[in-house]
Amino acid sequence: MLLSIMYHRVGKGKHANSLAAFRKHLSFFKENYPLVLPGDPLQPKKLSLCLTFDDATYDFYHFIFPLLKEFRIRAVLGVPVHYILERSDLPPSGRLEIPYSLMMQEGIFETKAPFCTWEELKEMVESGFVEVASHSLLHCNLTFNFVNLRQEVVQSKERLEEKLTQAVSTFIYPFGRVTPRVHEYVRGHYSYAFRIGSAINFGWGQGKQPLSRICGDQIEDPVALLSPLRLCRFIANRLF
Question: I want to staple 129 with a disulfide (CB 3.0 to 4.6 A). Which of 68, 91, 155, 199 is the partner?
Fold first, then answer.
């Protein structure tokens, strides 16, 4: 069985955990579960975990990447490609203080560099501890009819592969939003696609449904995240 966990940022708020909480999570996972990336073999009769981080904000490079190296854990990083700058010489304090609500605004992301840069992404990819996924181009809701799917799905992938010289096989739906029409299109370009679903996966094969992810944000205790009761609910959500 496979459980994918979705994280966002280090800090406070609805879509965040403290750095101390992340250290607890990673230490607990490392000691108790096989940790895999999309397509890796799953151990029979064991629950495997796939760790995913959305948005590629600078705090991932500054805080999470060092933890991944320390614990020797691999994770998936969803990148909203339009907001990635080539490099930045700005001090970390300034890049970390930008509220998420402002990060994608024109005039903010270009001057404040609140996201990882291509230079930083390349370093992380080359380390072997981070695998990038497309999180679309503009981080928009793909279920809206006016969205240019080729731009969001295909061009984001092409840009990632061009800049990082790494094949990109995974797509992470912004906001977890997807329709059968959108997923059919994404399946034509990616081997794996993730949504939000609070359900366990029985393997990497997604068929007509994207792979589900449970939310790990705002959870201090990783044991509570994977308690037997919660795991039973995740299984039930997949079965029924």
Answer: 68
Contact assessment for residue 229 and residue 209, using Cβ atoms and an 8 Å cutoff: no
pLDDT band at 206 (very low <50, low <70, confident <90, very high): low
The answer to whether 90 touches 96, Cβ cutoff 8 Å, is: no
Which domains does the chain carry?
Answer: 2-239 (3.20.20.370)
Can you give the pTM of this predicted structure? 0.95
Q: Which residues pair with 76 in a beta bridge?
A: 52, 131
Confidence of residue 66 (pLDDT cuts 50, 70, 90): very high
Q: Which amino acid is at 45?
A: K
Residues 6+ away with beta carbon under 8 Å from 10: 16, 17, 18, 19, 22, 59, 60, 62, 63, 64
Which residues fall within 8 angstroms of residue 93, CB to CB, at 6 or more apart?
none
CA distance 40 to 138: 29
Structure tokens given for 157: 């992938």
Give the residue from 134, 204, 215 showing the smallest Cα distance to 174: 134
Q: Report how far residue 204's alpha carbon sits from residue 42's, in angstroms, rounded to the nearest whole number.
A: 9
Residue 35 per-residue DSSP state = B
Residue 86 has pLDDT above 90, yes or no: yes
Closest CA to 210 of 155, 142, 152: 142
Q: Is 28:223 a contact under the CB 8 Å cutoff?
A: yes
